C-alpha cells in the first residue's frame, strides 16, 4: 500500500474542499487516514481461503453448522464510506470435513477489508467456503446499513440491505434452505 500517495491525496482533498491542511486539527489527518486505509483495506493482500483450516471429524457430521451475527464493517466502493452489519454463515459439511468456527469469522473480515459491494461480499464468502471446504451446501446472509444512504443521498438512517447467497444443497432443497433461514431469523 502506498501510504505517501494516500497522504498526498487526502491533503489535496482537504485543499479542494476549502480547508487548510496545515491547521492544527488537520495537519496529521493525511497520515492518520493513510494508516487507517492500510488497516481497513488489508484484505486486498490476503486470500480468504488461507483462514479455512480443515480438520476431519470421525463422526462425519453432515448437518448444518451455522455461525450467526458475525459483525463486520466494509467500505462501499461507490462512495468510499462505510457499510456495516451482521453476516450469518452456514454450511453442511461433507465427509466430516470441518473448519473452526472462528475461521469463518476470519473469512468475513478478510473479504470485508476491501473496497466492496454487499452483493460481492456475500458471494465471495460463499464461494470461498465452497472452494476450500467442498461442503454439501453453503448459505450466507448479510444484513447491513450503508452510510451512503444514511449521511447522503436519500438520508434514511436505520434502513438495512439484506443479501443472500446459497450454494449446493441449499439451491436444490427448499426444506434445507428454509431450515437455515429460520435459524438465522428466529433461532437463538
TrEMBL record:
Positions bound to Zn(2+): 76, 79, 148
InterPro entries reported in the protein's UniProt record: GTP-CH-I_C/QueF, GTP-CH-I_N, GTP_CycHdrlase_I, GTP_CycHdrlase_I_CS, GTP_CycHdrlase_I_dom
Biological processes, Gene Ontology terms: one-carbon metabolic process; tetrahydrobiopterin biosynthetic process; tetrahydrofolate biosynthetic process
Catalytic activity: GTP + H2O = 7,8-dihydroneopterin 3'-triphosphate + formate + H(+)
GO annotations of cellular component type: cytoplasm
Residue ranges of domain GTP cyclohydrolase I in the record: 6-184
Annotated keywords: GTP-binding, Hydrolase, Metal-binding, Nucleotide-binding, One-carbon metabolism, Zinc
The EC number(s) this enzyme carries: 3.5.4.16
MF annotations from Gene Ontology: GTP binding; GTP cyclohydrolase I activity; zinc ion binding
GTP-binding listed as a keyword: yes
Domain of life: Bacteria
Gene3D superfamilies, per the entry: 1.10.286.10, 3.30.1130.10
Pathway membership, UniProt: Cofactor biosynthesis; 7,8-dihydroneopterin triphosphate biosynthesis; 7,8-dihydroneopterin triphosphate from GTP: step 1/1
Similarity field: Belongs to the GTP cyclohydrolase I family.
UniProt subunit comment: Homopolymer.
Database matches in HAMAP family: FolE
Name listed for the protein in its UniProt record: GTP cyclohydrolase 1
Species whose genome carries this gene: Natronincola peptidivorans
Recorded name of the encoding gene: folE
Amino acid at each position: 500500500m502506498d501510504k505517501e500517495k494516500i497522504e498526498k491525496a487526502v491533503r489535496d482533498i482537504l485543499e479542494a474542499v476549502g480547508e487548510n491542511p496545515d491547521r492544527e486539527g488537520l495537519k496529521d489527518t493525511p497520515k492518520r487516514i493513510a494508516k487507517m486505509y492500510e488497516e481497513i483495506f488489508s484484505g486486498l493482500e490476503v486470500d480468504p481461503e488461507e483462514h479455512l483450516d480443515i480438520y476431519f471429524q470421525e463422526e462425519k457430521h453432515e448437518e448444518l453448522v451455522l455461525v450467526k451475527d458475525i459483525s463486520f464493517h466494509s467500505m462501499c466502493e461507490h462512495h468510499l464510506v462505510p457499510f456495516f452489519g451482521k453476516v450469518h454463515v452456514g454450511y453442511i459439511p461433507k465427509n466430516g470435513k470441518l473448519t473452526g468456527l472462528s475461521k469463518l469469522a476470519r473469512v468475513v473480515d478478510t473479504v470485508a477489508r476491501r473496497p466492496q459491494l454487499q452483493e460481492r461480499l456475500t458471494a465471495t464468502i460463499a464461494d470461498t467456503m465452497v472452494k476450500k471446504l467442498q461442503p454439501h451446501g453453503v448459505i450466507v446472509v448479510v444484513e447491513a446499513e450503508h452510510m451512503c444512504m444514511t449521511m447522503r443521498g436519500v438520508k434514511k438512517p436505520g434502513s438495512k440491505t439484506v443479501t443472500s447467497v446459497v450454494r449446493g444443497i441449499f439451491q436444490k432443497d427448499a426444506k434445507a434452505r428454509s431450515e437455515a433461514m429460520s435459524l438465522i431469523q428466529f433461532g437463538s
